[in-house]
Amino acid sequence: MYSFEPTEEQQMLVEAVEKYAGNDLRTAAREAEESGELQGKLINKGWEIGLLQASIPESYGGFGERSAVTGALAVEEMAFGDLAGTLAVLTPSLFATPILLAGSEEQKQAYLPRVIEGNWTPFTAALIEHAFDFDPNSLKTYATLRGDQYILSGEKVFVPFARNAEAILVYADLDGLTQGFIVPKETVGITISAEREKLMSLNGLPMYRVKLDSVSVPVANRLGGASGHDFGPVLAAMRVANAAAAVGVANAAFEYSMNYAKEREAFGVKIAQKQAVAFMLAEMRTEIEASRLLTWEAAWKLDQGKEYGCTEAYFAATGAADMAMMVTDRAVQILGGHGYIRDHPVEMWMRNGRGFAMFTGLAIV
Amino acid sequence: MPIEFEAPKPVVQTQFVLKTVAEEMMRSRSRYFDEHEHEIPWDYIEFMHTAMKAMGAGSLAPKDKGKGQGENGGEVREKRPSISYQILATQIEMLSWGDVGMYLTTPGGGLGAAAVQAAGTPEQKVKFLERFGGEKPTLAAMCMTEAGAGSDTASIRTRAVLDEKTNEWVLNGEKIFVTSGDKAFTEYEKLGKGFIVVWASIDPSAGRAGMRAFVVESGTLGVRVVKLESKMGIRVSDTAQISLIDARVPFDHILGSATVEKTMTGFKGAMATFDATRPLVAASGLGVARAALEFLKEKLAENGIQIRYGLPRQKLTSVERDVIDMEIMLKSAWLMVIKAVWMADNKKSNALEASMSKVKAGDACTKITQKVVEILGPLGYSREFLAEKWFRDAKITDIYEGTGQINRLVVARHILGYSGKELR
Predict the structure, then answer these.
(1) CB neighbours of residue B262 within 10 Å
(2) What are the C-alpha distances in Å from B143 to residues A112, B78, B171, B398?
(3) Is B281 on the interface with A (CB under 8 A)?
(4) pTM of this prediction?
(5) Alpha-carbon span B242 to B136, nearest angstrom
(6) What gap in Å lies between CA B111 and CA B142, rounded to an integer?
(7) Domains plus CATH for chain A?
(8) Closest CA relative to residue A299, chosen from A281, A285, A312
């Protein structure tokens, strides 16, 4: 059957996220963007909602079961508050969720309880590389098997919290396939840039470059163990998260610009009463809905597990990146000159908006 | 029910059965009827009538004459949410994939019956809708548009005046763009007795509040089909111009109340019809779009071009990008249709979702069919293939049942909470 109603449990979770996103993330967003500092207290408060913890079974220290649909609902709502804050809160998932999805039993037992016990702790992952044709399925960082060790070489960018990370899940090319490798803190050959990445947005999120110079890890550290794993569902889960976050940011920009248009007067009427503005808003709302449904469907398919919904996740992420750019651009346009001024958040959302085309790997559901 | 995207079994069966019908009865005849405008596709009409009768899907009249009883007189079992709109949208999408013009000639109540469903009394529903289960295929049509009133339906000038002596309504005016108006009104031997629903004002000073719909039986004196339009596409579907000169209809053929309160009930009847039919028109357009996109992918495959799904945009060829963008448009538009009809099935108010699905589908099907012809180049432009026909057929989706602009206006009013006065 078709159905478009979240369960009661999902609704409760979404409400908790909504409160945090509105009261905490949104109010701190501008300050964090300008100063480059997201407060640890703020991140930990989001962590305590327990999105990751609730996706991990009791046997590994969690209290629930993973659902990409639930994840998508929560990520959208959180990103409605602030994207940088959302990515910070969810950084440990970048490490834990692929282990949950594709890790060996030993890896699950060794790492999942460690990640989710207690406060937010920086565990992270490194996927993105510094190339215009960066492709998660065709990485330039590579792994070679030498005896009972994998040797990793290459360079990763946009790695959140790499500096203090307990462990990094590094993705590398192994004989033409993308595979994950667990690289613990202070492994020899790994260099983390002293300076943070400087990007067009996400200033509050500390991201680093990670150099791997013949980094050696045991075979058992390959995600899934010696026989490895299928990267498809992991990538799909990243794409769904990316799409959901794009919907959240777009919705923030849509609502803000709509409320502005209902207040702002020109030529004796509210500008929302002009069709030129009203039609933009109608199209923004329509495209947000289109992306949201695509994202939900892809997430639902991932939860069905059989065919992974990989193509759907690709569609959802690709469509949402376009949509978010269009919607955030229009939000700035509706505010006009005021939209360009950093007193309003729409210009920040527009800078976020462009990013979704390259953010795959910064979030996962 | 949690969020789910599993198509219900009856929906899947519908797709399966109708695909054969679409291929055998429609595609094979598409080009012929496109080039022989105003000919009637009798074998399709008769086939569909027989098939629908066999499936027990003919009569649209309410079935629960004895309350609390099922169709066979047994007790109604546990109430499950209906999926009838979901099935209907699927049927329409699939038949339009076959040939959208021919789909419009499918016997049944169409928009005329939809108006009766939305604005009629229970007695009227029985009286006017029972006929569709009869021996002969029967059609009904809706007459709204006039030469001077398209999207602005409130400026309709057709008048209805009550003749108190005979207790009849006397209708005067001229309607255009009546889809299937000829088949609904003209008394063809092969067709059962149809009707047209005519929107007219019983009090022009009252504006929209004075608007009412009247059921005008086929063959009524004073009513004439004066012209069949020649169109860009959907040529097999007749588009009639109908004139009404002192046409008389019985008093009880008015849908809704005969007195003009200063409320909008009459006009709201028309608008309620649109909430139900807009996602269906959207579904129809998406059927055309899917036909065109599938044809393009076939032709690309024949030429050894594989679409590399999953690659980042920067690595894709222009054609691959176009195809992927079209798939995203088509898929998301279809999900919006499904959500809108799912809401209708679950008795949730769906005016916003209905209009959004129509906005999205109108955009999607025009852009997709245009792009398909472009990518196919001379193959697309040639009448040897159907791509150029789908390009012409698809365009109507963004025009009828509310243009893309009118639907944007509806969406905007909804999200802004504005009345028609606040956002004109």
Answers:
(1) 8
(2) 66, 40, 13, 19
(3) no
(4) 0.94
(5) 23
(6) 6
(7) 8-116 (1.10.540.10), 124-221 (2.40.110.10), 231-355 (1.20.140.10)
(8) A312
Instruction: Please identify which residue in the block is written with the tokens 């979404």.
Output: A14
Expressed in percent and rounded to 5, the helix, strand and coil fractions of chain A are 55, 15, 30
> What is the distance between the alpha carbons of residues A240 and A309, in angstroms, rounded to a whole number?
10
Residue with token string 């003919």: B58
A132 in contact with B, Cβ within 8 Å: yes
Token duo for residue A180: 């994950």
CA separation for the pair A344, A348 (Å, rounded): 8
How far is A234 from A241, CA to CA, in rounded Å?
11
Q: Are B328 and A290 in contact (CB under 8 A)?
A: no
pLDDT in tens, B333-369: 999 999 999 999 998 999 999 999 999 999 999 999 9
Which residues of chain A make contact with B339, given a CB cutoff of 8 A? 2, 4, 289, 293
Q: Is B175 left (phi over 0), alpha (psi -120 to 50) or beta?
A: beta
- Which residues in chain A come in under a pLDDT of 50? none
What residues of B are in contact with residue A261 (Cβ under 8 Å)? Answer: 416
Confidence of residue B70 (pLDDT cuts 50, 70, 90): very low
Domain boundaries along the sequence of chain B: 140-263, 267-416
Of A278, A296, A357, the CB nearest to B416: A278
The reply to whether B267-416 shares the fold of B140-263 is: no
Question: Tokens representing B312?
Answer: 């980042």
Please state the length of chain B.
424
What region does B56 belong to: left with phi over 0, alpha with psi -120 to 50, or beta?
Answer: left
- Parallel, antiparallel or unpaired: strands A167-174 and A124-126: parallel
- Cα distances from B203 to residues B115, B200, B209, B223, B349, in angstroms, run 20, 9, 8, 21, 29
pLDDT of B149-178, one tens digit each?
887 877 899 999 999 999 999 999 999 999
Q: Of B135, B353, B401, B422, which residue is the catalytic one?
A: B401
CA-CA-CA-CA torsion for A220, A226, A230, A234, nearest 10 degrees?
A: 0
Superfamily of chain region B140-263: Butyryl-CoA Dehydrogenase, subunit A, domain 2 (2.40.110.10)
CB contact under 8 A, B416 and A290: no
Closest CA to A318 of B323, B362, B306: B323
Taking the CB of residue B338, how many other CB atoms lie within 10 A of it?
25
Which residues contact residue B304 at a Cβ distance below 8 angstroms, ignoring those fewer than 6 apart?
none
Question: Per DSSP, what are the bridge partners of residue A80?
Answer: none
Q: Comparing C-alpha atoms, which of A259, A190, A234 is closest to residue A97?
A: A234
Instruction: Round to whole Å and give the CA distance between A203 and A83.
Output: 10
B235/chain A closest Cα distance in angstroms = 31
Q: Could you confirm whether domain B267-416 is CATH 3.40.50.720?
A: no
Q: What is the pLDDT of residues A288-329, one digit of tens each?
A: 999 999 999 999 999 998 667 899 999 999 999 999 999 999
Distance, CA of A270 to CA of A261 (rounded, Å): 7
Does the structure's ipTM exceed the value 0.90?
yes
Which runs of E-coded beta strand occur in chain A? Answer: 2-3, 124-126, 142-146, 149-160, 167-174, 177-184, 190-192, 207-218, 265-266, 269-270
